Task: structure prediction
Amino acid sequence: MLKKILCLVSAGWAACAALEAGAQEYLADKVVAVVGNSPILYSQIYELGQQLVQQRREQGYTSDRDPMNEALETLLLRKLLYNQALIDSVEVNAATITEQTETMMNNMIESAGSMTRLEAVMHKPIFEIKEDIRKQYEEMGYAQSMQYEIQDKITITPGEVDRYFRTLDKKNLPIIPDQYVYAQITKLPESTNEAKQRTRERLLDMRARILKGTKFETLASLYSIDPGSRFNGGEYPPSSKDMWTPPFAEALEKLRPGQISEVVETEYGFHIIQLIDKDNGLYHFRHILIKPTFTDDELYATDRTLDSIASLIRADSLSFEKAAFLHSDDSFSKLNGGIVTNNEYMEVSQMYDVKYSKTKFFREEITIPQDYEALRRLKVGEISSAFQSQNYNGDVLSKIIKLVEVIPSHPADLKSDYLRLEEMALEEKKKEEFDRWVDKKIEAMYVYIAPEFREGEFENKNWVK
Result:
């Protein structure tokens, strides 16, 4: 529930909903509650309540709980965490908040059709809209950091996992859904080097156009594939170079304000970077990101190569394991007989605890759609035809997949599902610790709720003092 609480951005959602409807009823505002030094307005509760209703509708479930009451409790908790974060001097990433604000503003203006139209829908000048969005992202940033401070140090022992499992009703044990074990052989297009060279030349041409007077932000808006900056002319708010991948950071460090880098290759593609300014170790820049592209003939040639390998495997002329070792471009699986792990995802996500490495995947964990589409058509032991897919960095590649095993859904078992049960036990422990912390802070912090809003079904009864 807490994750849901902290991820709701009511003002941004309300603007988008209003734009879709074409009008927004103007709400007379008043203070409904106060937590610490933070007021909660009726308009905030109303907007968040409408978002909750929309979420329920999209997810296909109903609730007996009044969405206005749920929205109020959501905001009470957020304000509590925010105020305590300020008291404890918890830090947030200012650059991330600025980036989130700019992205939301760009999306809202794009949805409205113009800045003037957005102002009319929101009944505010653009600078007030932007400041409201910034404050909400800042508040959520502090609240999330406070939650992390509370829960990060909570750990769980094997004995606690065992006790948690023993407390579960054996007639109603958690059901572990179907899990898939599969292997793959991947190949990048044989013309990858040529495609990379075409990409470098394309960026060099853009760089030359910029040096001759074309605006950098114009080309970024037209051609960059970076969703985090494209709609802002390639611009990122000031940030530490440590936030960026090493080749990018090294290029950024060498630039003087106004300079444009040569072409920089990273795991995400190819970039040119323009430094706007640098202050106190924070780099303010814009960039253009593009990836190599391939013709249909180049892609299909790679498919044909993999289909030939698949034919040899089906004819028992070559084992899948040896084929993966000899031919696969996937460094994460080729030395493991092609068996897919989550190690690539862990590396991209900067998760370094090897105990979370796994080879069994729930349906929702197979996040590359093309992979699951191929997988669901196979019987155990079968090999797919070659198909186009991608890796976690979005690089285009061809792939064949072998379905190794399907582990049917079953009641949780301590031996075979230990990590899943450990995760469940840890989440329960974190929730219990967090609930105790919230109870203490509600008691210690000033909390006021207007009388007409005190009768709702609060999950935490301590809000009403």
About this structure: Confidence is low (pLDDT under 50) at residues 1-15, 17-26.
